[in-house]
Specification:
Layout: H1 26-34, H2 37-48, H3 50-53, H4 59-74, H5 79-104, H6 109-137, E1 157-161, E2 167-170, H7 172-186
Antiparallel strand pairs: 1-2
Helix pairs in contact: 2-4, 5-6
Length: 226
């Protein structure tokens, strides 16, 4: 990098410039700055990166780097997140291996169980990280299944709730099943032509068949009672 394009390094790596809009007060500008996700993340990174890169990591550069990563994700570039998940899964696998090796040399049962328990937790976290990476690369498709209410007897099904939160009960399952059964009984063949019940109006009796007319009263001799 040439000197002309070199960015001047501030004397205080912990200094963070605060941008302020004309309509904002100093207190509002500080509050908005404190709520920026990139600034919160940069503060945490600086606090925990001291044992790796020293205390001289510029805080404003961390904020800028995180802001650039957020912008790439917003634009649809997930390469940074994918690299992060791969790195975390690999690191957790290393922790698992180290803890298992330490557990193997223990002579007391409680120490062995403690190291193995931590090892299995690291293994579970590594597996969860890999699963998150797979979901990021290949998002799952949502499946919508329509509900089918099938019953062999009386049943009440609550499919939806009203505006006031009360459930609407649909009890048509038994009614719809009973109606065809009743129709079958009415349509049964009881000696009628066509097997259907005659629903025509009743007709007056005719004297066509004298043999089946109503018989008149017959006066019989009274028998003496014994």
């Amino acid at each position: 990098m040439s000197k002309a394009n070199a960015k001047p390094v501030t004397s205080d790596p912990n200094a963070l410039p605060v941008s302020r809009l004309p309509e904002q007060s100093p207190a509002q500008a500080l509050a908005r700055t404190a709520l920026r996700p990139a600034i919160n993340g940069a503060v945490v990174v600086k606090a925990y990166q001291g044992n790796l890169l020293g205390k001289d990591v510029d805080l404003s550069e961390l904020v800028q780097g995180l802001s650039d990563s957020c912008k790439r994700v917003n634009d649809g570039d997930l390469s940074t997140l994918e690299a992060m998940l791969i790195s975390q899964a690999t690191a957790l696998q290393t922790v698992f291996t180290s803890l298992v090796c330490r557990a193997q040399v223990q002579t007391q049962q409680r120490h062995l169980e403690a190291f193995m328990g931590l090892a299995f937790k690291a293994q579970a976290q590594s597996r969860a990280t890999i699963s998150a990476l797979v979901d990021l690369k290949n998002p799952r498709q949502a499946t919508f299944v329509k509900q089918a209410n099938i019953a062999n007897g009386p049943q009440q099904v609550n499919n939806r709730a009203g505006a006031d939160g009360s459930a609407h009960v649909h009890g048509h399952a038994h009614a719809e099943k009973s109606a065809p059964e009743q129709n079958k009984l009415l349509e049964a063949d009881h000696g009628q032509p066509g097997g259907r019940m005659d629903t025509r109006a009743a007709q007056a009796a005719k004297r066509g068949n004298q043999a089946v007319e109503t018989m008149e009263s017959v006066y019989r001799a009274k028998k003496p009672r014994g």
